[in-house]
Amino acid sequence: MTVNADAGLGFGHFIAQSDVVGKTLLGILVLMSIASWVIIVIKGLSLVSRRRHSQSFLNFFWNATSLEAVANEITTHGVHDPFSHLTSHAMHAQAHHAKYGAAKLEEAGTSGEFVTRTIKKVLDEETTRLENGLAMLATVGATAPFVGLFGTVWGVYHALVAIGMSGAGTLDKVAGPVGEALIMTGLGLAVAIPAVMGYNWLTRANRVMSSKLDAFAYELHTFVSMGQPLGNEAAQPANVRALASRPVAA
Q1: 236 class by beta-carbon count within 10 Å (0-12 exposed, 13-18 middle, 19+ buried)
Q2: pLDDT (tens digit, 9 = 90+) per residue, 48-70?
Q3: Residues 6 or more apart whose Cβ sits within 8 Å of residue 236
Q4: Pick from 186, 160, 176, 164: which is nearest to 26 by CA?
Q5: What's the pTM value of the predicted model, to 2 decimals?
């Protein structure tokens, strides 16, 4: 890295004077920033959509006159949120076990036990789905400041070497190049702060969603296990029986 006293100092000058390592670190920070913002935007939009569909389904569920009406709603409009997804699988499990019994090892036990295992499986799937991408945000938030600091240390080292070789060690000759090198630390913080804030926001939102889903799962298990005749296919509503004969959307 060389210092030109006549050249204007700033970000552009710093990039122009950077070597391969400095430009590589800058590229890494840019990629980190793009990745974190893409995750934040996609997860944020998904969260808003999930909340809207969840509220709509819960309003319908709690105002429905029977599980038959809920089954009809799911059959007609499909599943678009964690609550309808959980309900669909639970009702499908109950209807399937009532119709076919314990035909496989995973279906062993009573209908209520099979429904319980199905609900737990769906809850695990929803938790995994909610947490997708959060590890990347946490990684960016934790490592971006250090990447920026590395770039600063590297830039300061080369600036001081160049100044020493030129023989101009006065403050006005040192402050400019060193100040330019500090840009990398600022960039690292600029990348890390949104990632950390996005991670905390999404983590809290997912925790709230998971708590509501757990509470709903308890009520759903009671309704599905006790609200429908068990072991009597003919006594089940047609829409509930239909759930057992069609694949359930993941």
Answers
A1: buried
A2: 988 898 898 888 888 887 788 88
A3: 95, 98, 228, 229
A4: 186
A5: 0.73
